[in-house]
Structures are given as C-alpha cells and as structure tokens.
Amino acid sequence: MAYSDKVIDHYEHPRNVGALDKDDGAVGTGLVGAPACGDVMKLQIKVSAEGIIEDAKFKTFGCGSAIASSSLVTEWVKGKTLDEAASIKNTDIAQELALPPVKIHCSVLAEDAIKAAIADYKKKSGKDEEAAE
Length: 133
Ligand code: FES
Ligand code: FES
What we know:
Blueprint: H1 5-12, E1 27-33, E2 40-47, E3 53-61, H2 64-77, H3 82-86, H4 90-97, H5 104-125
Helix pairs in contact: 1-2, 2-5, 4-5
The chain binds FE2/S2 (inorganic) cluster (2 copies).
One FE2/S2 (inorganic) cluster binds near residues 37 and 62.
C-alpha cells in the first residue's frame, strides 16, 4: 500500500514532536492507544489564559499514518479555541492525508488524543463542567 505524499511529508518532517511539562496547569495531556494495532499516541496542548491553544506537541509510537495524523493535528489546533479544537473530526484528518480505509483508525487515534488532552486540561483547570454533558 502506498502512502500519500502528505503522509510521507509529515512522517519525514513531523511537526511539533516533543513534550510539554505535564505538571504545568496550562497543559493538557492526552494518551490514547489503538486497540486495532497497539499503537500509542501522546498529544499535549498548552492553553493561554484566554483559552487559546498556543502550543501543541506529540509523541507517537506507531505507523506512518498515525505519526502523520498527530503531526497534522498539532498544526491544526494551534491558535484555536478548545471548542474549535474539539470539533476536529478524524474524517477531516483522513481526507487531508488521503488515508486508505485500513488506516482510518490512525486518524481516529489523533481525534481521540486531542479530545483527551482537552478533557485533561479542563479537569486540571476546573473547567470540566462541559465534560459532564
Ligand atoms: Fe503497525 Fe500500527 S499496526 S504501526
Ligand atoms: Fe494503527 Fe496506524 S495507528 S496502523
């Protein structure tokens, strides 16, 4: 199976690889695993006092599509509000990267990771009333 040019680009030049301080109150950390293949993705966001995501980092132990999905998502969420970031769909990621059907779960992992990072941030900052809806 051939990877798309965009997957290869993100795989060879991943954006925002690294880690933020998980004990920083402005940082939310999402750690998710894919049951289908055992791959693991860690995605972190740093949120400004105004509620804007000002930084994002990831570490992914997984396939090229998972790395590309997380790299793309870190680019997309920067400058967005938490609500905007939470509305990113795996289908948007899969479409942007032209993922084939067997690789769709890699983009689901990225959507789950950003949602988990947002939930962690809200929990830490006491803004988790929305999480109960
Ligand atoms: Fe091999 Fe995900 S199944 S990297
Ligand atoms: Fe499992 Fe990509 S995350 S194959």
